[in-house]
Amino acid sequence: MDLYMMNCELLATCSALGYLEGDTYHKEPDCHETVKDLIRYLRREDETRDIRQQLGASQIVQTDLIPIIKQYHDDKALFETIIRLLVNLTQPAIVCFGKVPKDKMFRHYFLDVVSYLQGYKVAFADGEVWTVLSRKLYELLQLDWENRQEEDSLLIERMLLLVRNILHVPADPEEEKRTDDDASVHDQVLW
Questions:
Q1: Domain ranges within the chain, ordered by starting residue
Q2: H runs (alpha helix) in 29-180
Q3: For this protein, what is any one GO molecular function term (predicted)?
């Protein structure tokens, strides 16, 4: 597939999620299928992690996925699929590339992915997101073993992986230049 064509298709897919108007996110009718399409795109990315980079550059986590989680957390199927996509998007760069690349170009791609991850970590410093995630996790953990379905256990595992991935994101060097009385992004996420 031509790279230009793929960019257009990916852009169209991202646009089909919905839009943010003020503090309200309006999802499109096919939002759930669109999230599944994004997961399929990520499966087909090449060794440069081109899809991951394009999604990071579009700030899809900040502008679409987090607002959808905050507003449509009661849509079980959509919530589960978005968590699945977020776990994939927040994978550590070292996991995506296998190791820190020696090649100059691949090292650049690696650092781009790290930069996007740092942006995701900033977006996850939103208390409302953690309220939704903790409430969902609490509800799932309250289910008896006999009543807990396999997909419930899988969602618990994915939510914990998402938390791990966000906490694993390395600090931005610019962030470390803060004074002692400023809270880092990592501290904000922990709080």
A1: 3-169
A2: 31-43, 50-57, 60, 66-71, 76-89, 93-97, 104-123, 127-141, 150-168
A3: DNA binding
